[in-house]
Amino acid sequence: MTIFNKRAPWLLLLGDALFFVVSLWLALFLRYGQSPDKEIFFAHLAPFSLLFVVWILVFFITGLYDKQSAILKSKLPTYLFQGQVVNSVIAVIFFYFVPWFGISPKTTLFVYLVISLLLIIWWRVYGYFFFATKAREKLILVGGGGEVNELRREIESNQRYNINIVSVIDLENAHQNNVLQSIEESGASIVAMDFHNDKIRSILPNLYNLIFRRLRFIDIDELYEAVFDRVPLSLIKHNWFLENISTSPKMVYDALKRFMDITIALILGIISLVFYPFVALAIKLEDGGQVFILQARIGENNKPIHIRKFRSMTTTTTLSGDKNGGANGQSITRVGSFMRKTRIDELPQLWNVVRGDLSLIGPRPELPQFVAIYEREIPFYGIRHLIKPGLSGWAQLYHQTPPKFEASNEDTKMKLSYDLFYIKNRSLLLDLNIALKTIREIVSRRGV
Question: What kind and span of H or E run contains 12?
Answer without folding.
Answer: helix 8-32
